[in-house]
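Request from the bench team (R.T.):
"We need a structural guess for the complex before ordering more flavin-adenine dinucleotide. Sequence and SMILES attached. Just send the tokens back."

Command: build protein-flavin-adenine dinucleotide structure.
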Amino acid sequence: MLQTEVNLTQSDTFSLFTAAQLEWLNKARRFADTIPLADCLKSDSENVFRRDLFEAACKQGFGSLPFPDTYGGSGGDYISFVLINEEFARRCMPFMSSLGVHVLCQEPVSRFGTHEQKEKYLRPSASGLFLAAFGLTEPAAGSDTAALETTARLESDHYVLNGTKTFITSGGSANYFIVMARLADAGITAFIVDKESKGFEIGQKFDMLGMRGYATCELVFSDCIVPKENLLGMHGEGRKVALSSLAKGRVTIAAQATGWAQGALDTVVTLLKERVKKGEIKVDELETCKYLLGDLATRVASARALTHQAAYAIDRGAVDVTLAGMAKIQATDTAMHVATEALSLAGKFGAEPDLLLERIFRDAKAGQIYEGTNQIQRMLIARSLIK
Ligand SMILES: Cc1cc2nc3c(=O)[nH]c(=O)nc-3n(C[C@H](O)[C@H](O)[C@H](O)COP(=O)(O)OP(=O)(O)OC[C@H]3O[C@@H](n4cnc5c(N)ncnc54)[C@H](O)[C@@H]3O)c2cc1C
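Reply to R.T.: structure attached below.
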């Protein structure tokens, strides 16, 4: 039911891109074509992560797309990464969120890591041998990262971590974790924790409303031993490490949300056309929803434009945290709005899993919450205006 051809607005936008960027998009499209809709539906309904599909995506170069080839990266730019994320989200590919977080985790290793850490973690991340997860949120510390309770202490040649991280995407399947913990006298500090570390355990697995099928779990550290060489950045630099990756991560989420919004819009337009063709709806009955469709299409195009602007800033080497936050708000709120209206327009058909509308509705809600809620993003934008 979902259209796989690009619509007019997208085609116009696409003339702005380079041949290399469009090649990444076409590659993503060809790869997505090999994944049956049934696989997307099953991963959601059974809440099962398709590690095999994640690995296949990495073999195509998507898992390290925006990193230079020095440590196995694909040498693409962020615009290309944004284009493939929109495409994967539009079709609810069951590895999409883990792929986004995987790239988010490579960012601080690439930026703050030692040569040895880059060799050890980036190469296998690029090939798909390793999957990475990001451990920031705790039961009592979500938006307020200053409230982090996970502790780290240095003992001779290793650190000892204690605490719990919660709602960690890919937590149940990842090989290594970027973990923020509080080091006495230094403050929040970043570590790379291997899945096999002594004292590390995967906790509760969550049965989610949306973003299901991503092995979202608790991580439990009980006197967890982390070798000294797995310190990421300097003591007390954890906040800087986290923020550097989250700013780019928000642009990735904006791209995914633009894809959800486009997917929902395409589906409902196709559905309405089919119903007219079958004589179930008269063309003049559609008059009342034309303004609505025009409004939805405009919102999707503006979410895309802001997302691309934020991605261009990244590619120019000027990550703009405010712009990234704006793109995340605009795109995820648009996805939620378009999915809600599309469900209304679809009526009883909206409940059909095959249409992906109810799925996009559930996923879009999560998009408004994770990687910094949209309320918090608005506060940060306001703060940047009045500081
Ligand atoms: C699907 C999903 C995947 C996730 N994956 C990860 C992951 O991989 N890694 C990770 O570390 N975390 C992850 N998270 C956690 C996510 O980042 C947090 O849920 C998010 O940061 C919000 O924190 P919280 O849930 O504790 O909400 P809270 O911080 O408790 O906020 C609750 C509400 O209060 C509002 N609020 C809070 N403080 C203020 C304030 N000062 N002013 C105004 N309003 C405020 C918020 O906007 C929100 O509406 C994931 C969450 C979801 C839903």
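Two things stood out. Residues 240-386 form a domain with the Butyryl-CoA Dehydrogenase, subunit A; domain 3 fold (CATH 1.20.140.10). The chain has a mean pLDDT of 94.
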